[in-house]
Amino acid sequence: MGLYVCFFVVFLMLYHGPCINGGITSSFVRKEEKSIDMPFHSDVFSHPPGYNAPQQVHITQGDHVGRAVIVSWVTQDEPGSSTVVYWAEKNNQKFKATGRTTTYKYYNYTSGFIHHCNIMNLEFDTKYHYQLGTGQTTRRFWFMTPPPVGPDVPYTFGLMGDLGQTYDSNVTLTHYEMNPVKGQAVLFVGDLSYADYYKFHDNSRWDSWGRFAERSTAYQPWIWTAGNHELDFEPSIGETKPFKPFLHRYRVPYKASGSTEPLWYSIKRASAYIIVLSSYSAFGMYTPQYQWLLEELPKVNRSETPWLIVLMHSPWYNSNSYHYMEGETMRVMFEPWFVEHKVDLVFAGHVHSYERSERVSNIAYNIVNGECSPVKNLSAPVYITIGDGGNIEGLASIMTEPQPKYSAYREASFGHATLEIKNRTHAYYSWHRNSDGYAVRADSVMFTNRHWHPMDDSTSKTE
Length: 463
Ligand SMILES: [Fe+2]
Known about the structure:
The protein is an alpha+beta fold.
């Protein structure tokens, strides 16, 4: 009898052997179909009716704390008005703010008139209506300002990346909108329109993307990160200024955080401190981005904003074959700082798949000591790759094998995520795949704050 028990124990040990890898590679297999862009005549791209009607409306936070909103839009036929009329729903007193208009050319394309208007001194936690355009083509929208910055302010972020404008992109955005968990602002991790997929980077696809996303971007701020598809760097047609279309169309409040470039900056929103980095700008020692981040991280006051979140495009911890190790150079530069400052969460895109890491770091290596594997580190962030918006390049379904220990969950499906910050200690995170019903959480974790409650919130079975 004792021998049987012994065999049984050995069997159990062997059976659970693969768990030393820790994580889960989801057995869910999405039917692989090509992702194709929706045609220009699709209803999601429809132009608002009327001559010179404002289109491609989008908003983002306009200052460091959430009392300002940058409203951006395009008028196609003539400059028109750059004025935003806005009022708080509770008192109807109308205010006006006037912005500026810009245009740009990209090879054989000339943009419409791109308006940016920063409306400031808003009240916190207030519903505002705003109106753009004139006469018959006036359009109205609304947004909510966030609550005042504070350590226990609940707030829910949506997370999307690499969205594009395919039928799958439309499903992703619809799932985000229909999710019973209501995101109040979107953290977007880069790669918006994929206009560069087309000949001469057909910038009409930047316009159509603006019209497609408007149903969300006009009503809640999207916090922008630049990806490689924002570069639009094409010397063969004389386009040598990186990020030209993106920077003309999408404005961010970078000066409010002491940044010198719109590609890296920070904001506070409710109980979160969001740092946006640029994977495609210089970050080596002494560069402006390096210097800014070096000075930025010590400024974060966790008693005011407990949740320290970083957005970037190219992931540091990615076990998909697609873009494998592309984020390595930035990881080498900045990872020790992330651990020192106890960053809670790092969100990236770029890989068209979903992956969540455990809390690991790989900062011990010093050329000669051989310590070059990621190790569990409860001061380290969780790294989440959410580049699964559904763009024209399709799914990245080939993973490195075996699944590394640091990888807690990975799956090649399109989707989006939500992060529900509850208070200074807990935030509930969920990833939703497009193939499921709106309320289904395919991967979810209760994260605990690294400053206030640094307990082990790993989900793998070992270590
Ligand atoms: Fe990318």
